[in-house]
Design goal:
This protein has about 600 residues and is an alpha+beta fold. It has three domains: about 290 residues, Beta Barrel (Thrombin, subunit H), CATH 2.40.10; about 110 residues, no CATH class; about 160 residues, no CATH class. Helices cover about 20% and strands about 45% of the residues. The chain contains eleven helices and 34 strands. A six-stranded antiparallel barrel has the order 1-2-3-6-5-4.
């Protein structure tokens, strides 16, 4: 009997010891250590991964509590991490979300670190109570078009705590989130790195790993990825799991993007190694199988659910070069804030990755953005580098980005993008010419008369040449002095009754905006536009030129003119000729109609 009691005592003792060095099971509700009980000098542990999938214990000591540090009633626990590993690395990018325990109870997650250029292992812990409030936040089945939440600001340390840390480290900043990329070329990163940095992420080469049945078996301290692009190019961000309760994941301890309710794929992430750096140590990671959906991206944590992944937007890119054809397939997360940049990045990366592509060729784009319940947005244009530093692929990618941005920023409805198809043809020579001058045979003309406008164009290489644009003066044109604008497409789209820009907020809906976008001019044509000094009324996506004064008076007398706008200029006629090369510049001519 005495022996049996002793065995039971030893088993209880071992269980108690294990509880102090290992977090609760992922399916259990963790025991919570109240913030009110946290005192300076207390000892605790954090759990994180430095290499492989092995969660390691890191000892720590509480320095103090910073009240209202990142907002009203949002406190931060300041801690010092201890041990040989953190002496080398400091607080590591990707460590955000690492669970912190005191007396075997969950107190919060690492979320902040000392400012840049220090490896001092001082961290800020987001209290678990604040993280659990994410579940009670407002939810939505679809994300808001422009909903944003500011990332945690820099947190200044009070003088008494600043004295206990290294010199130059008197403030805390959010721990960087690694942006894991596979298949991303250095040139792509150079072009779009600023966009990634604005998201608060550190881009670095990573990889992908085969999915396994154990991917969704998460425990506190494991890594998860939030997938932004998958396929021939992959881009994911990585955070540490704080806790898993009934299939719900809490991670990061700070916002990922701060977009509120979101719908993004969650994947299992693995740590290849931890790279120590005096500027910013980081985890080098890979992402594995899809394990669920990220649903909330809030001030104190991100939250997701284990299970099926959300739908992503399929993007197909076909690149035709004189020697070969390359096809790429991607899937991009659907997010009003992220999708435009991600599609542009994927397109640019696919184009410059072809061995047959060089920086000199002209690129011809055709394609579409297919939206549920709407006419497709047509993508058609020609792109040539105007200098030796910016390749045509960048102009193409940013134009696609701009079209996406206009669709997503519309004030009418959240678009449901079904797929994106891009077909790019690389032409060997640089096809580009600028408008040097223009002239007509005579400056006095009559209605109904046909004349030829001669335009002197200067190509990228070779001799200047003359192109003629035949125009016919309309019968109903206003008599007197008029302006004839010889220009490229960009000038007209930006300056001459740019309906898509000036009427976007006054349209009935998204379909009319798509109509205006599809109506825009192409930059491989040379345009002649006759302008007359008579007013035009723009109603929704339609224009009524030469409106009489009586109608203007009626419009002005109305207290609310609705969707009508008045422009003190009218287009009397527009003509163009196809050039099969990119045209830039403009030239103004004056003519008199008798």
């Amino acid at each position: 009997m005495h022996t049996a009691l002793r065995k039971l005592f030893l088993l209880a003792l071992v269980a108690g010891l294990l509880a102090t060095v290992w977090p609760a099971r992922a399916t259990d509700t963790p025991a919570i250590f109240p913030l009110s009980d946290v005192k300076p000098g207390m000892k605790g542990v954090a759990y994180t991964i430095f290499e492989g999938d092995q969660v390691e214990k890191v000892d720590l000591e509480v320095i103090g509590v910073l009240h209202n540090a990142v907002g009203p009633k949002l406190d931060v626990i300041l801690v010092r991490l201890l041990g040989d590993e953190v002496d080398k690395t400091g607080v590591v990018a990707g460590m955000s979300g690492s669970p912190v325990y005191i007396d075997g109870k969950l107190v919060g997650a690492l979320a902040l670190k000392l400012g840049t250029f220090t490896r001092d292992a001082i961290g800020g812990v987001t209290p678990i109570a604040d993280m659990l409030e994410v579940e009670q936040g407002p939810s939505s089945s679809t994300p808001a078009i422009a909903q944003t939440t500011a990332a945690p600001p820099r947190v200044d340390l009070p003088p008494d705590m600043a004295q206990s840390v290294a010199a130059g480290g008197q403030f805390l900043v959010p721990i960087e989130t690694p942006l894991i990329t596979s298949g991303l070329y250095p040139e792509t990163l150079a072009r779009f790195g600023k966009d990634f940095a604005s998201w608060g992420m550190t881009a670095m080469a990573g990889g992908t790993a085969p999915a396994t049945p154990e991917d969704s078996d998460l425990k506190p301290g494991d890594m998860v990825g939030i997938d932004l692009v998958r396929g021939d190019l992959s881009i994911s961000s990585g955070c540490t799991v704080t806790t898993v309760i009934d299939g719900r994941i809490l991670a990061c301890g700070h916002p990922l993007f701060g977009y509120g309710s979101v719908t993004m794929p969650l994947s299992r992430a693995h740590v290849l190694m931890t790279l120590a750096s005096s500027q910013a140590s980081t985890k080098v990671m890979t992402t594995g199988g899809i394990i669920g959906t990220l649903t909330e991206d809030r001030q104190t944590a991100v939250m997701g659910k284990l299970g099926p992944a959300p739908r992503m937007i399929p993007v197909d890119l076909t690149l035709d070069t004189p020697s070969a054809q390359k096809k790429y397939h991607f899937e991009v997360v659907e997010s009003p804030q992220l999708t435009p940049t991600l599609v542009a990045t994927a397109a640019y990366n696919g184009i410059i990755g072809s061995p047959a592509y060089g920086e000199g060729p002209t690129l011809q784009l055709s394609g579409s953005i297919d939206l549920k319940g709407h006419t497709p947005v047509q993508l058609e244009d020609l792109f040539a580098p105007a200098d030796l530093t910016t390749p045509a692929a960048f102009f193409l990618a940013t134009e696609v980005q701009g079209d996406f941005g206009r669709i997503y920023s519309n004030p009418y409805e959240l678009p449901d993008v079904q797929r994106v198809d891009l077909h790019v043809k690389a032409l060997e020579e640089r096809r580009w010419a600028s408008i040097d001058s223009a002239w007509i045979e005579r400056s006095e003309v009559h209605p109904g008369e046909t004349l030829s406008v001669k335009v002197l164009l200067r190509p990228y290489r070779g001799s200047p040449f003359i192109k003629e644009i035949p125009i016919t003066i309309p019968e109903q044109v206003t008599r007197g002095a008029l302006q004839l604008v010889i220009s490229d497409a960009d000038f007209l789209n930006r300056n001459v009754q740019s309906l898509a820009a000036s009427s976007q907020g006054a349209l009935p809906g998204l379909e009319e905006l798509i109509t205006l976008i599809n109506r825009e001019r192409h930059n491989d044509r040379l345009y002649a536009t006759l302008l007359q000094p008579t007013p035009t009324v723009i109603v929704e996506d339609k224009e009524m030129p030469n409106i009489p004064a009586s109608a203007i008076n009626v419009l002005n007398e109305r207290q609310n003119p609705g969707n009508a706008r008045l422009v003190w200029e009218s287009t009397a006629g527009e003509w163009s000729v196809e050039m099969n090369e990119v045209i830039t510049g403009q030239h103004m001519l004056s003519i008199t109609v008798k």
